[in-house]
Amino acid sequence: MKKELLRRGPRTLLATLRKWEPEREAACEVRRVRLAYFQRQQARMRYPVYLRRGYPIGSGAVEGACKHVVPDWFDGGGMRWKPTTADPVMHLRAAILSQPRLDLRQFAGVSQAAAA
Q1: Burial degree of 19 (CB within 10 A; 0-12, 13-18, 19+)
Q2: Cβ–Cβ contacts within 10 Å for residue 34, how many?
Q3: Residues of the chain with pLDDT > 70: what percent?
Q4: Which of 6, 11, 55, 98 has the fewest CB atoms within 10 Å, i.e. the most exposed one?
Q5: Average pLDDT taken over every residue of the chain
Q6: Residue 70's Cα: distance from chain center in Å?
């Protein structure tokens, strides 16, 4: 099914789950939960499109970056970061990079009129 997801997306998986008629009650519940999940997530499972565009479809790139970039960023010479101070800075950096037009002045205690 993994190969089918990568080649054609969730269509075959959903069709297979819909046709599946389990005999046991526990398996019926598994089918219900899984089918509901994949139906909700099918828009996110456009793997063939993502692969054609060269997008990563796994979490490995992000996990690898977290493992190497974050420590390198916070362990620079002379830096004295603690989790209580580093965590808000990482959230702020993520917000700025993911939403460049986000107006963060309200969080800094600077009024928009004073900054203009």
Answers
A1: exposed
A2: 14
A3: 93
A4: 98
A5: 85
A6: 17
Rounded to whole angstroms, the Cα distance separating 70 from 80 reads: 14
Strand, helix or coil for residue 98: helix
Place of tokens 């960023």: 73
With beta carbons less than 8 A apart as the criterion, state whether 65 and 71 touch. no
For tokens 């060269």, what's the residue? 54
What is the number of alpha carbons within 13 Å of residue 1 lying toward its C-beta? 9
DSSP state of 116: -
Sign of CA dihedral 89, 90, 91, 93: positive
pTM confidence score: 0.54
∠ CA 19-21-24, nearest 5°, is 155
The answer to whether the CB of 20 falls within 8 A of the CB of 31 is yes
